[in-house]
Amino acid sequence: MKKSLIWILTIVMATMFGALLYFQIMYLGNMARMRDEQFTEAVMRSLNSTSEFLAKEETLHFLEQDANIIESSFYDYYNNSGSMTTGSVPPGEAGLKFPDATQSIGARYGSLQEVIRSQYLYQKGLLTEVILSILRDSGSRPVMERADSVDIRNCLRTELANNGIREPFVFAVYNNRNDLLYTSGDYRTDSKDIYSIQLFNNTDYAYRLDVEFPTKNTYIFSSVRFIIPWLAFTAMLLVIFIYTIVMIFRQKKLSEMKSDFVNNMTHELKTPISTISLAGQMLSDPTISKSPATIAHLSEVITEESKRLRFQVEKVLHLSVIDDASSTLNFTDVDANDIISSVVNTFKLKVEKQGGRLTTNLAATDANVTVDEMQFTNVIFNLLDNALKYMREDADPELEIDTKDLPGNRLEIRVKDNGIGIRKEDVKRIFEKFYRVSTGNRHDVKGFGLGLAYVKKMISVFGGTISVESEFGKGSTFVIDLPLARSAR
Predict the structure, then answer these.
(1) What's the burial of 450, exposed, middle or buried (CB within 10 Å: 0-12/13-18/19+)?
(2) Residue 124 main-chain phi, psi, to 5 deg
């Protein structure tokens, strides 16, 4: 699949997932806002009902207080109006003069209208006296009598339940000068979610009732939480999709690197095979004179190309070691200083042939480590060979390998060179399989990009770590940190 097609599919799918997440988040926000509005509406209906209840309770108080006065005035009116001419006085009709039954129907109807009118005017006067009493005397009543906390709590609880809200609440009562009179529970004056309503608003001594719901946010969330799993599910799908796309690009890049590896390997193997084949044909061709010098030259060519071919085959075999190292290793306790010295003695001639120098400073007093001796030898050889391979053309190679003790029963090995160095963007990838830095793609540098991947894998299997310190154009230093053998601790 072409990379452009992968990018197009990625953009389309990412857009779709983004839109889906956006709409779900918008729906969640709208649902929460709608539930908040419904909650507010239900609370305000409950507060209005509570305000009406308290107003009615105050009116009832004054009616009961003036009951004796009203009753006294009622009987005074009855005595002053004279006795009824017939029958007994029905309840509620005392003090009224009813028309005589002997009167004509027209006269009786007129008299009845006059009786009703008199009754209306009298009762209107009594109600006016009660209203004036409320307006005049309400301010003298204590706040706990006008707005009793128990009455408010009970009424609020009932009205809220009728409106579908059973959340706990606290409230406070203020006077018309905004002075706090009393609170219930853990009321917080600095809360942002407070619902207010005026009490006794038609009098000169009005109060304000503030109500707070400590668990309001939990109530809102509980009403919309069914959306959360769908939102999380979509987010998980998005993460899986991103991970899949990343893996596709990695696999595509790995496939390209493997293709480059196969092409490179074919070229690397084909060259020595062709050279050996040509030398063999020359030796077997009877038409070519075979002087001792010619035979020696052809023999040397065959030997060198055979070594080169064997070296390339060993590089390929590193693949199997990298993929399954633990099953093919033979761990033993060895002295790292001894192995390094052995490798240096062999490799020093190769460095001096290039006009360079290889020095050591094996200062570690305890260098016993548990490793596979052959693979550990290959690790040191790979690092030295890699340092020599990428030397600078304007300077003789200077290689140095040091060891020293580290705290915590550990050994440090440093391989330093003055080569071309590694760019910062390549440092984090040089240990990847098949990866070769761009500065290494020179005509005289061959390889498969397996050496450092092999080194990192082996050091990891040995229980250690490897890092690199490099400055482009000035050289690199590879630092190995290995645990000491248990017998040496």
Answers:
(1) buried
(2) -65, -40
Q: Which of 148, 175, 146 is nearest to 61 (CA)?
A: 146
Cα within 13 Å of Cα(26), Cβ side: 6
Q: Which of 23-32, 53-62, 340-349, 373-382 has the lowest mean pLDDT?
A: 53-62
Q: Is the CB of residue 450 less than 8 Å from the CB of residue 322?
A: yes
User: Amino acid letter at 197?
Assistant: I
More confident position, 100 or 362: 362
Which tokens sit at 308?
């080169």
Facing residues of 359 across strands?
A: 400
Q: Cα–Cα distance between 176 and 205 in angstroms, integer?
A: 7
Q: Which amino acid is at 453?
A: A
Count the residues in the chain. Answer: 489
**Per-residue pLDDT for 445 more than 60?**
no
The answer to whether the CB of 112 falls within 8 A of the CB of 100 is no
356 CB-near residues (< 8 Å, 6+ apart):
388, 391, 396, 397, 398, 399
Structure tokens at 489: 């601790």
Kindly indicate the confidence band of residue 440, based on its pLDDT and cuts at 50, 70 and 90.
Answer: very low
d(CA 74, CA 84): 15
Both tokens of residue 380?
Answer: 């040191």
- What is the distance in angstroms between the CA of the first residue and the CA of the last residue of the chain? 55
- 97, 103, 89: which is closest to 122 by C-alpha? 97
Beta bridge mates, 291: none
Residue 399's alpha-carbon distances to 281, 415, 454, 469, 477, in angstroms, are: 41, 7, 21, 15, 10
- Asked if 82 contacts 97 with a C-beta cutoff of 8 angstroms, the reply is yes
Residues 6+ apart with CB under 8 A from 235: 21
pLDDT band at 114 (very low <50, low <70, confident <90, very high): confident
Which pLDDT tens digit goes with each residue over 133-149?
655 555 556 667 777 88
d(CA 163, CA 144): 26
Amino acid symbol at 7: W
Q: How far apart are CA 445 and CA 16, in angstroms?
A: 47
**Selection from 40, 44, 55, 41 nearest residue 199 by Cα:** 55
Q: Rounded CA gap, 322 and 176, in Å?
A: 84
Surface-to-core class of residue 351, CB atoms within 10 Å of its CB (0-12 exposed, 13-18 middle, 19+ buried):
buried
Residue type, 10: T
